[in-house]
Amino acid sequence: MKKILSMVFLMALAFAGPAAAGSQGAGDGSAKGVPEGMQAFDINQTVLKVPLAEGVSAEDAIDAIKSKAIALNMKFVAHQPLSKELAARGVESGRLEIFQFCNPGDAHKMVNHNIIFAAYMPCRIALVEDGEGQMWLMMMNLDMLINATPLPPDVLEVAEGVNETLKTIMYAGAEGEF
Questions:
Q1: Among residues 142, 138, 121, which one has the least CA distance to residue 130?
Q2: How are strands ordered across the β-sheet holding 123-129?
Q3: Which pLDDT tens digit goes with each residue over 152-172?
Q4: CATH 3.30.310.70 is the classification of domain 42-175
Q5: Neighbours of 72 (CB within 10 A)
Q6: 76 in Cβ contact with 63 (< 8 Å)
Q7: Helix (H, G, I), strand (E, B) or coil at 50
């Protein structure tokens, strides 16, 4: 566990920098809410995001990600239509939906290597409407985690495969490709 926590800390430091921290803090390299001696990193580095192509509706993107997931053996396991829930509560919001996917065999291999990986499951792709009305698909930047985590070759192969599969699903959704 100490090894994993150390890795997360080192990963945060690796992505730290004056430009990222200075934009949030007092200009002295500190960031609001970050304890002294620690550096902040740009949260944008932790996600991959792609806009929906011109002419691709949110519904087209959703159909495409579900179809591509099936084609790539990635089980669609959950959907949270958060903007609908917010509307039911009287909260005005842009579109926000989260789609969750999992390949049980891959999940089993990762958790057998280290149970900490269960915290990253299932894999998620979010559909988000920004303040300008642009629709985006986004997911966690798994490259960042994979590159910062020593893994045996068989587990690395699984992690890289899941990452490529999710990217393929996300990009297919953004283009409306089935």
A1: 138
A2: 47-51, 135-140, 123-129, 96-102, 75-80
A3: 999 999 999 999 999 999 999
A4: yes
A5: 16
A6: no
A7: strand
Q: What is the DSSP letter of 54?
A: T
Task: Kindly report whether the peptide bond that precedes residue 122 is cis, defined as omega within 30 degrees of 0.
Answer: yes
Q: How is the chain split into domains, by residue range? A: 1-41, 42-175
Convert the pLDDT of each residue in 5-40 to its tens digit: 333 333 333 333 333 333 333 334 446 777 887 777
Give the pLDDT score at 31. Answer: 63
The pTM (predicted TM-score) of the whole model is 0.78
What's the CA gap between 107 and 109, in Å, rounded? 5
Contact 26, 138 (CB under 8 A): no
Q: Are 62 and 173 in contact (CB under 8 A)?
A: yes
Q: How far is CA 80 from CA 12, 54, 171, 174, in A?
A: 29, 25, 20, 19
CA dihedral (112, 117, 118, 119) in degrees, to 10, reads: 160
| Residue 97 contacts residue 127 (beta carbons within 8 Å) | yes
